[in-house]
Amino acid sequence: MNRTLRIGTRGSALALAQTGHVADSLREAGATVEIVTISTPGDRSSAPIAEIGIGVFTSALRDALANGEIDVAVHSYKDLPTARDPRLSLAAVPPREDPRDALVARDGLTLGELPTGAKVGTGSPRRAAQLNALGLGIEVVALRGNVDSRIRKVADGELDAVVLARAGIARLGRTAEITETLEPIQMLPAPAQGALAVECRVDDVDTEHLLQSTLDDSASRAAVAAERALLAALEAGCSAPVGALADVVEDLSDEGAVVLRLSLRGVMATEDGDLLRASATGDLTAAEELGRALAAELLDLSGHATASPAGRS
Ligand SMILES: NCc1[nH]cc(CCC(=O)O)c1CC(=O)O
């Protein structure tokens, strides 16, 4: 293919870094690429995400792609709404970064070392619910802004710590500032955290094939599919904060052969701030069924009736 592929990205340092990696991989595969920066309402507003709505970072990019202003869009997968965009194809999920959340605290402190009353910043209801459930006596403070400005609040002494996605910090080359990577048993990440979604127009089959063959990682794609199916099913049933993480694990088949399976863990906060947890394993080829089945279990635990027998399709 000798046309120039225009790759669209948001203009934040994080978005530019992750799009740069995608562009490098495509160039190595022989493609000619150009990076086009697109400003989104999410970049221009400092209101809480809960107010401006999911999709604020991604819909402008998707529109530019559908309109033909760009040929490829690179998103942080967790920022995409769960509803499919019929104009676009999710051509590739590149190998996922470490999906865990990370603490950046003053004086090298870990969560357990923070004193009572310590101010910990996060804008995410999921992180806030899981931090509060640890019972550490810390004060969770609402916070937004880019990775740099959030970390700066710790350096400036305004906050004792912030919790961020490890992947975002890593893509900016700042892992040295992490004081603790939070284990999923304490803090399950957002569904699809650490993964990228690379889209093209649904009718642009040449680009779709190039992206798929150059960038896609099937294990990352399956893990993220399970987590996002869980999220989608829970969104339909309630608006509670949700965390989920799928790992690809080795298992033995009935015949004794090693097979890869998905192990999915999920957490959902109740209105009282209690956490409901559940986990399940399933076939790599049935990732979405696994996600829906675990969502049904969580909704069951929460007392919400499930409309349809999810996971049995
Ligand atoms: N909601 C913002 C956002 N979207 C993607 C990332 C970075 C990491 C990722 O790709 O998951 C972040 C920052 C954060 O949550 O700390």
Would you write up a description of this structure?
- By secondary structure, the chain is of the alpha/beta class.
- The chain has three domains: 4-95 and 195-216, 3-Layer(aba) Sandwich (D-Maltodextrin-Binding Protein, domain 2), CATH 3.40.190; 101-181, Periplasmic binding protein-like II (D-Maltodextrin-Binding Protein, domain 2); 223-302, Double Stranded RNA Binding Domain, CATH 3.30.160.
- 33% of the residues lie in helices and 25% in strands.
- A five-stranded mixed sheet has the order 2-1-3-10-4, with helices on both faces. It has a five-stranded mixed sheet with strand order 7-6-8-5-9, sandwiched between helices.
- Strand 1, helix 1 and strand 2 form a beta-alpha-beta unit.
- Helix 9 (218-237) packs parallel to helix 10.
- The N and C termini lie far apart (40 Å).
- The relative contact order is 0.14.
- Residues 307-313 have low confidence and may be disordered.
- The structure holds the ligand NCc1[nH]cc(CCC(=O)O)c1CC(=O)O.
- It catalyses: 4 porphobilinogen + H2O = hydroxymethylbilane + 4 NH4(+).
- InterPro entries: HemC (IPR000860), Porphobilin_deaminase_cofac_BS (IPR022419), Porphobilin_deaminase_N (IPR022417), Porphobilinogen_deaminase_C (IPR022418), Porphobilinogen_deaminase_C_sf (IPR036803).
- The modification S-(dipyrrolylmethanemethyl)cysteine is found at residue 238.
